[in-house]
């Protein structure tokens, strides 16, 4: 099925006093619209439309900019903005402004605004605006990754299929693997760590999907791969090529994805047994991984947590181990960002990105996720309804109930509404409509009345019924033929007259 997307991004460029370029085409305020075509394939086209409003700062915005640092300015400006999801506000400050450090021309805050140093005229400003929109909204690669099912492998980048597919919900499972409980009594305060570090991130992501979190401790659960002992470092090593073989044996013990309706994200903390300690993970070049962890796309991540060997060989066993949850959660949250495709791309050296802090992701990163998931949801609805139509064409005697038909109509209406909202820059309402479309299309496609096993093609009916009725039909047909022949003979015989 073909699809034509139009993505509109509302952008406001606000000039502080002393920062207005001299080569503006007309006096402030004015509007400008720029469109860019993103080629996906022959059936799918995407037009990105940047609707930019150029204006001067208000008195309140000037007061908010009258602070020493860019971070304080970003926090003060956020209180003044009525910024909807997907919109961007760029504040142009004078070239001599002290907000930006030396050598920094662009500061990207943790909300939906950025500071740009003036200088170089309108052409330089537009170049920086284009770079900013690529960072803070969406890129051709992020949209292509969302439409990865519609693209051949040759047109996709190496990370295109690494991100999680869009879903209405996700289940997160934290597992502590203790293969040697006789030697290690491991204690981890996972509940406090989830409330302190993970929950703020999930609260921010609650707009994208529903999340559930659980934890478990598995004893005598081994990795399934024997590490190699290195004499020089007196440690055990896991090479990069052996890491894929670690997951399958462990996954059999997890048991979390068997009864789950939604994708499951597994985060495993592995405390190696005493006979294989310390254990370190190597990268492809043979160098040790600083985090001693690795992640598997669309599955989760594993971190190896080494326990310090006691100084006295006669130390009583099991050793009591208190897990440093701050260090562990830093790794797991970084892996969570990678799974959702929120890894930060390399930027020009004059760019400075503010840390998102305890929330784990900035507002504009949430917008990037919503752009990609909205486009992916609409494409999923199109594929699902096309498959349903092909099923109906193949089975001519299938019965469509009224509730199934209403779900199909609702899915089409919601998908059309989502595309219309995207075209006018209403990202939040477009995403909600796309979720409704996915829900309705899946209800229609997976309705029990449409189970293809309930309906049989004509050739299957003949194959079933002919062996049953043919043995019975042969003597009946022979008897009928005999009756017809006898009737004809009686008609030919002359009647006897007395």
Structural notes for this entry:
The chain is of the alpha/beta class and 498 residues long. The chain contains eleven helices and 17 strands. The protein has helices at residues 59-65, 70-80, 121-136, 140-146, 190-205, 244-254, 325-339, 363-394, 402-423, 427-445, 458-492; strands spanning 3-15, 30-39, 44-56, 88-93, 106-108, 113-117, 169-178, 184-187, 210-219, 228-230, 235-238, 264-270, 279-281, 293-296, 300-304, 319-322, 351-353. Helix 4 packs parallel to helix 8 (363-394). The longest helix has 35 residues, at 458-492. It is flat, with a radius of gyration of 33 Å. The mean pLDDT is 85.
Radius of gyration (Å): 33 Å
What is the 3D shape? flat
Report the sheet-strand fraction.
15-25%
Number of helices: 11
Mean residue pLDDT: 85
Short structural summary:
The protein is an alpha/beta fold and 498 residues long.
Comma- or semicolon-separated keywords:
alpha/beta; 498 residues; 21% strand; seven-stranded mixed sheet
What's the arrangement of secondary structure elements?
Layout: E1 3-15, E2 30-39, E3 44-56, H1 59-65, H2 70-80, E4 88-93, E5 106-108, E6 113-117, H3 121-136, H4 140-146, E7 169-178, E8 184-187, H5 190-205, E9 210-219, E10 228-230, E11 235-238, H6 244-254, E12 264-270, E13 279-281, E14 293-296, E15 300-304, E16 319-322, H7 325-339, E17 351-353, H8 363-394, H9 402-423, H10 427-445, H11 458-492
Parallel strand pairs: 1-3, 1-4, 4-6, 5-17, 7-9, 7-12, 8-16, 11-13, 12-15
Antiparallel strand pairs: 2-3, 5-6, 10-11, 14-15
